[in-house]
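Weekly structure sync, notes
Attendees: PL (lead), two postdocs, one rotation student
Agenda item 3: pending single-chain targets
PL asked that the sequence for the first pending target be pasted directly into the notes so everyone works from the same version. It is reproduced below exactly as submitted, 136 residues in total.
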Amino acid sequence: MSIFKFCAVCDEVRLEMGNNKAIIIGFYGMLPYAEISVPNPSQPIPMLTFLLISGTPLVAGRYRVQVSVKDPNGRELASQEVPAIDQEINAEPFNAIIAIQPLPLAGLGTYQVTAIVNGKEDFAGTFVISQAPAAQ
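Predicted structure, written out during the meeting:
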């Protein structure tokens, strides 16, 4: 059974101190319904953030969360460079924020995102990189 049920894709997520409230900046959508229009699909995105949401309380314990991002040809883009979250969790819902800075791109198409929890694939979804209209 998956730990994470949802994944928001955005430019950045900031946590408010003291109340654990997330501020989402530049929201693209929820996987698999996120589309990112870029002017140059061969240039990296300066920062892309994945907000993984459990929704329901987890069993208390230690969780190590990593993200893998693969281009439309199945090549790994980010898993080794992105530090994992390694955290002790109480029996409560868990949100993991993982930012990739920068995210290299390999052109237009559908990209695969996989959350890996404690060494096992947990949640997978896709987002689309599309061509932004020319500036006028």
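Discussion points:
- DSSP finds no helices and nine strands in the chain.
- The radius of gyration is 15 Å.
Action: rotation student to compare against the earlier draft before next sync.
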